[in-house]
Amino acid sequence: MIKQVILKQGREKSVIRRHPWIFTGAIQKVVGSPEQGETVELLSAGGQFLGRGAWSPQSQMAVRMWSFMEEQIDLDFFKRKIREAIVLRNPPVISDETTGVRLIHSESDGLPGVTVDRYGEYLICQFSTAGAGYWKKSIVDALHNNISCKGIFERSDLSVLKKEGMGESIGMLWGEDPPEVIEIVEDGRKFGVNIRAGHKTGFYLDQRENRSLVNSCSKDREVLDCFSYTGGFGVAALAGGARHVTLLDSSGPSLSQAHSNIQLNNIPEDRYTLLEADVFQTLRKFRAENRRFDLIILDPPKFVESRNQIDKGARAYKDINMIAMQILNPGGLLFTFSCSGHMEDLLFQKIVADAALDALREMKILRWLSQAPDHPVITSFPEGKYLKGLMAIAT
Ligand code: SAH
Asked: N or C: which end of the chain has fewer CB within 10 A?
């Protein structure tokens, strides 16, 4: 018999609004002893059926909802969800010229804890919740049943796994072993993705459209790509005709992949510099040396991992934005981002405004930027929006 989770009085409200997370504090009683990841039925205190979700006994999020309807959670359920996700990644949402695509974006595709990225003919998955781990085999079967691919590889090596009481898991799930580096095309630009050693599943697909915007603004500009990783923005700027691009990152292996990526796109050596250094220090060094740029990208890692880090993170964002503004030429463009979900859009804009005041620069916002459409946000789960950015011009 299916095990049941009964909520406390009044705690069904967010579930009725189709929010997928149930915290331990909302639970009155568990009937039966569900195992980690097992499907449970969720009921209100008054006995109303609310849906089915995955039991996660070690997490603060004790249940994550699979469905708000009377439906079985089984292989067919996962096949259906995957088919729905594929439809919204078709042209015109994602162009035919793009072969690196996020296919499943966790809660936003109705599959909490399941992330699937497609790099050419291979799928790379992350299973980050007890429920996703429990159904891993069915999800993998549903994937290769619906998507023609050569192989499916797992990169479940996220820090959040600990909170779920799960171990890391990396390796082949199905089909052929992918090569060390998979070549993808993003809006016509080529990139090698190291799916085993790279960050996340190997590439930051969420920035695709923002890179294309940088590509269209780079002609004849002196560009600084801060936190360049494997050169997503740098390559876009070079392909867009930048006079010269400095790619700055503290990770040597990321920069050497960036170098290969630049070469893949046939860019002459005198148009770029790879700099392995700390962004905070290097921006100060450039300021002291009177170096100036016409376009600067700031795409740092998450400075805010949890709510109590907001102030500390805000100071770090302000610091790099202020110095970047000081080394921008008049008419120079700043593309500045935060991928911290806890940092709200308006707060980020205020931080950038404070940075401009301290930098003694007048900046005008030209565009508000976000994540690419293969990272959709289901309206009932606004937490799905995490990437925010501004395109601003120095007057
Ligand atoms: N812009 C990239 C993604 C950036 S990921 C893209 O489009 O693909 C963040 C990067 O910041 C990582 O490569 C990491 O090595 C680098 N990084 C983190 N802290 C840094 C620091 N203090 N100085 C320089 N690079 C840093």
From this structure: N
